[in-house]
Amino acid sequence: MRKRTVLLSILLVAVLVLPAVAGEEHPAKKDPAGFGRIKSLAGEWDGKTSDGTPGKVVYEVVSGGSAVVETMKPGGEGTMVTVYHADGDSILMTHYCAANNQPRMRARAASAEPKELVFSYVDAANLSRPDEGHMSGLTITFEDPDHFSQSWTWTGPGGGKPEVFRYQRKK
Predict the structure, then answer these.
(1) What is the CA 35 to chain-centroid distance, rounded?
(2) Interatomic CA distance for residues 116 and 168, integer angstroms
(3) Which of 99, 102, 116, 118 is closest to 159 using CA atoms?
(4) Could you read off the pLDDT of 51-108 as tens digits, one per residue?
(5) What's the pTM value of the predicted model, to 2 decimals?
(6) CATH of the domain at 145
(7) Whose C-alpha in 76, 103, 142, 162 is 20 to 30 A from the C-alpha of 97?
């Protein structure tokens, strides 16, 4: 009888409490300035580097709108992924680079609809020493709803000149 009472008590708690917890909504947090511009890139894009090499990039808004995943396929290189997300009043990104390291960069926009976002180096995972080659800067320039560019800065051997990618929304 005692086991049955305990079992019925557990079931009663499960029936009354678990649906409330499972259905609990998380309050929406306010996006930092400029994050809406990153979200507006959702979709497929065709592009070219400054030397004319073709490439593609796809943006997907994920995790209830709290992150944006960029999947970049630059011509002649392997696929790379960058994840953008809010971090307080700034936008933090982690770039999963073909150089086998993962630099993180931060941007703070002056307005909700900035013309450009400038990401500055914070740190990197899987970087054995500071002078090892890694991405250290990114500027995204929003031209209009169907055009934008990225200017990536490389630090280390062969670094210096930014690599610029210009993209057009795929129709």
Answers:
(1) 10
(2) 16
(3) 99
(4) 899 999 999 999 999 999 999 998 777 899 999 999 999 999 999 999 999 999 999 9
(5) 0.82
(6) 2.40.128.20
(7) 142
